[in-house]
Amino acid sequence: MGKKLNIEKEEILWKDRKRTIFGLPLSFTRYEVCKDRLTMRRGFFKTTTDEIMIYRILDIRLVRGLGQKIFGLGTVTLVSNDKTSPTLELKNIKESEDVRRFLSKLIEEQRAERGISSREFLGMDGDEDFTETE
Hints:
By secondary structure, the chain is α+β, with helices and mostly antiparallel strands. The protein contains two helices and nine strands, in the order E-E-E-E-E-H-E-E-H-E-E. The strands form three sheets. It has a four-stranded antiparallel beta sheet, with no helix packed on it.
């Protein structure tokens, strides 16, 4: 038998599920935000877990279609410099505007705590490029 790992559980600051029909949380996609990371777990028989460090998130977008507005939902899209998950969507979540603001504030706090700043550079073709400096 293996040795037990002694890992402290982090405080969950926000969590929700992807909502489906009529805004009900009937899917197997779960989102959690701790102080320094965002985790998305998908699946029932086979579970996939994606994790992004909060300070690596470069841009946040909120989209709310008519159907989402009717049921009080929205989709928050996060763009990061993470290699495995450069774009992560928090689909059909409740109070999406509040979640967007919360994540934006948390990102700035984490960057300040780590002494990281983002600078934008405008490329020749008009694309934006983000870099990190310590």
